From TrEMBL:
Protein name: Sorting nexin-30
PX domain mapped to chain residues: 95-216
Family from the record: Belongs to the sorting nexin family.
Lineage of source species: Eukaryota, Metazoa, Chordata, Craniata, Vertebrata
Organism: Salvator merianae
Key word DNA damage present: no
Superkingdom classification of source: Eukaryota
Gene3D superfamilies in UniProt: Arfaptin homology (AH) domain/BAR domain (1.20.1270.60), Phox-like domain (3.30.1520.10)
Biased composition (Gly residues): 1-12
GO biological process entries: autophagy of mitochondrion; endocytic recycling; piecemeal microautophagy of the nucleus; positive regulation of autophagosome assembly; protein transport; reticulophagy
Biased segments, Low complexity type: 31-48, 72-81
Gene Ontology molecular function: phosphatidylinositol binding
Coiled coil feature spans: none
This protein's GO CC annotations: early endosome; phagophore assembly site
Amino acid sequence: MSAATAGGGGAGTPKALPSSGPKSLREMPHPLAASSSEEAGAELSPSPDLQLPRSIAEKDLSLPNGTPVDTSSPASSSSLLNRLQLDDDLDGEMRDLFVTVDDPKKHVCTMETYITYRVTTKTTRAEFDLPEYSMRRRYQDFDWLRNKLEESQPTHLIPPLPEKFVVKGVVDRFSEEFVETRRKALDKFLKRIADHPVLSFNEHFHVFLTAKDLNAYKKQGMALLSKMGESVKYVTGSYKLRSRPLEFAAIGEYLDTFSLKLGTIDRIAQRIIKEEIEYLVELREYGPIYSTWSALERDLSEPLEGVSACIGNCCTALEELSEDMTEDFLPVLREYILYSESMKNVLKKRDQVQAEYEAKLEAVVLKREDRPKVPTEVERCQDRVECFNADLKADMDRWQSNKRQDFRQLLMGMADKNIQYYEKCLTAWESIIPLLQDKPETK
């Protein structure tokens, strides 16, 4: 089910957002959707007890990334809205940016020890000078990229990174297992950005993929923040949202339940793996006893050796199952737990912007004295709310689609691994039956 469906409207033709109060405003046209109002999505009903003139000034507007928009003509094919409309059309044949993370290497220096990963980029996009790049990046570089994406694209859902220091159950962060688990997570992080119709065009992402000296860009700090990022970052907490629109309230409730369920599954799965590891320790002590016993029993020697070998095979199968759970199952759960938290943060930002808009609009209405137009500051604030709504709904739909695909693959893999485990155990135990049944009697 898509986010829009969950909120009570279809993905193709979203319903108008409910008013956050008992009375509604007259419809306000989105400044960015002057020529594509039918495709752009729902209208905003921002606050109760306020009436707003339909006339909205269409100047000095900008997209969330700071790009000026000429609302007197249809948006170009590269505009934010059109990119979002192409969201459902992205497939393997249309992709023009491919990123992979591989070849982890350990670096031991005087002051620190760290791991770097090779980031390989292949593209046909015109904004890249070369068709292929290969750079080495460490975890803190990925962290820098994510922070920059959050700052410059505050209306979008930014994919999560794996936990920085400790993944539960792994002590050595330089162990082969830990590094490989992190590599897979970093690879998925970049692939999700590369597949996004807006984030993949972000200037910080371009720098991350192509810059030989990334530290020079890191030192610029806040200098490259977009206008939208600045405005959202510094929204004060003095504005209080009257009521979150029903569609976004439904998304928030879903995310709360979703993260709770995944958190419970994660905790139980970790306990199961812990118990499997403890069971493995017992089995490894249990099997050899039959082998040593066989030396004392001439007539039972072969069956006892068979039991010992059978238990050893079961140990190997259980060890493989536990490793698969640790390396493949748990990381996906944790990624989506972090994903839900990221989405909640975007919802909070959206609420802050709407609360700011409602407060400013109310102040204008109280002081307007029949003026025909709303001040530009309020128009821009309303535009930010509309951008948040459109971007968040598009990203929620994309997230739901990725989630369905990821969990189908995850559960199919889990079923397959369990089937293999029980088949190996069954084969092992069946192998000793002939040793017990076909032993000829000694005359």
